[in-house]
Amino acid sequence: MEDYESPQETGKTYSILTDDLIVFYGVEYDDCGENPSEDWDGFGKFHSFGRDHINYYRGDPADLLFFYKCRHCDYENPPSDVEDRYVFEKFGHKVYQCPYCGLWTVLVRVGRDAVPLGYFEHGMCDWHVSGEVPYGTEGDYRWDGVSFAGVWEATEDIIKEADDAGLERGSAERYAWMEERARQSCETYTYWCNGEIYYYFVRAYKPRPINFDFNAETGEMEYDHDEDNIYDELHDYRYEDEVYVDACGCYYGWDKYLEQEIESSVRYALKKSGANNETEEGQNA
């Protein structure tokens, strides 16, 4: 499309004018985005140690990362519970009375399906896997970053997915798999924390001329199709019926996929006027 300009910012309405159609499109912030940590399946649970954060975790951070397994009944003893109870040393091992079966057992530490997270905030924030300092923040990280600021916890559906993939619990391969899932979730969760959620709109109308001329030969009112004689603001069409309308939201982050969706919708709208002679295959390419 010769006149198409890809949106580069929110709050700006773009337009394309043809002989019998004017198309408006743009991108705005979407204030209806869900908290993926609370509302999405297959995303994982974020726990923050920051008191000002919505997912603030009030417990012992160690409880999120590992547990002590009872050798008699497989009960998962939280580290904070173990520390609060009587533990004595025997032959170099800690011995603990399990609160579930009541038997004394040697504690075996088992890692949970969880990944420590780092956090950086300087105007905007960034959640990331602990130890992976975001690019461009190296100089400020010692002041505005925390290497252990929270934990990403795998939910039951993610745990089942790992089990089905044959990843043994406690293995390095399983942890690397969980770490990658945490890394992906951090990117989306950061978008949500920063309010970087968008929606696009595309609306097409029959052009509204500013001035008409009377044609004595035809007895009809005519108007110049020059762009200077056409209302070119979206609010000028607030009482008009759309020829085409499309809108879609909940885009977390601004990427090429969002831009492609907008362009595809604008192309389809222009076909209503015959201004775009591309085939349907071209639109979906």
Topology:
Elements lengths: L12 E5 L4 E8 L6 H4 L5 E4 L12 H5 E4 L6 E2 L1 H6 L2 E4 L2 E5 L6 E3 L1 E4 L2 E9 L1 E6 L11 H4 E9 L2 H9 L7 H22 L3 E9 L7 E3 L4 E3 L21 E9 L3 H15 L9 H5 L1
Antiparallel strand pairs: 1-2, 2-13, 3-12, 4-5, 4-9, 6-7, 7-8, 10-11, 10-12, 13-16, 14-15
β-sheet strand percentage: 25-35%
Distance between the termini: 14 Å
**Main sheet: which strands, in order across?**
1-2-13-16
Largest sheet: 4 strands, antiparallel
Number of strands: 16
- CA-based gyration radius: 29 Å
Number of helices: 8
**Poorly predicted runs:** 276-285
Task: Characterize the structure shown.
With about 280 residues, the chain is of the alpha+beta class. The protein folds into two domains: about 110 residues, no CATH class; about 160 residues, no CATH class. The protein is built from eight helices and 16 strands. It has a four-stranded antiparallel beta sheet. The chain has a four-stranded antiparallel beta sheet with strand order 3-12-10-11. A three-stranded antiparallel beta sheet has the order 5-4-9. A hairpin with a 6-residue loop joins strand 7 and strand 8. The radius of gyration is 29 Å and the shape is elongated. The C terminus is likely disordered.
